[in-house]
Specification:
single chain; alpha/beta; Rossmann fold; seven-stranded mixed sheet; two-stranded antiparallel ribbon; 9 strands
Length: 190
């Protein structure tokens, strides 16, 4: 997470105002009012704040200490600094929101990350995740990306006790990056 610690403000500024309504519209109808959401890799805190504003309870985690501090200021609550693989909580969540965050986990560790996060979901819990669309691992500007397609997603969630409810592809929602394609998925805990 060195990149995010060193570039926290730049990343925050570039993501905080992105309109995520189209993705929220796929996720929110699947979860009951006042649900408890784990924002896994909260980044700027944009989505945590949106869910809090809608009346949900949200627990936010991120692996970057510097980004976590900026997110805490945004959402006025603590952000736990931890990785997906190390996260542990006595709490069970109704839903997990992992927007453009699990893609930083190396392919060799991705199944374990899914398994660990899903273990914190209640039965029939909803798990949203997104990855850049592809079938490889790349490094760009000091950041590592694990890209997935539908087949690879199915493989990495095989041990997580979740099933795919839906997948769909979107263009990047950030201005000037519309040509970048994303795989979005909603999983359900068995």
């Amino acid at each position: 997470m060195t990149y995010y610690d060193q570039n926290a403000q730049e990343f925050f500024d570039g993501t905080i105002n992105v309109d995520m309504t189209s993705l929220y519209n796929e996720f929110i109808p699947l979860i009951p009012n006042a649900s408890y959401i784990l924002d896994a890799g909260c980044g700027s805190g944009r989505d945590t704040k949106a869910f809090l504003d809608l009346g949900y309870k949200v627990y936010a985690i991120d692996a970057s200490e510097e980004l976590g501090k900026l997110a805490e200021n945004q959402v006025n609550q603590a952000v736990e600094i931890t990785t997906f693989q190390q996260f542990s909580s006595p709490q069970s969540f109704d839903a997990i929101w992992a927007c453009a965050s699990l893609l930083h986990v190396p392919m060799t560790e991705l199944s374990q990350a899914f398994k660990n996060l899903a273990s914190h979901l209640k039965p029939k819990g909803v798990f949203y995740c997104s990855f850049k669309y592809g079938d490889d691992e790349v490094e760009r500007n000091g950041r590592r990306f694990t890209n997935l397609n539908e087949k690879l997603l199915q493989e990495v969630i095989a041990d997580s006790n979740t099933t795919i409810l839906k997948t769909w592809c979107t263009s990047d929602l950030r201005k000037g990056r519309e040509s970048e394609k994303w795989l979005n998925a909603i999983l359900i805990k068995e």
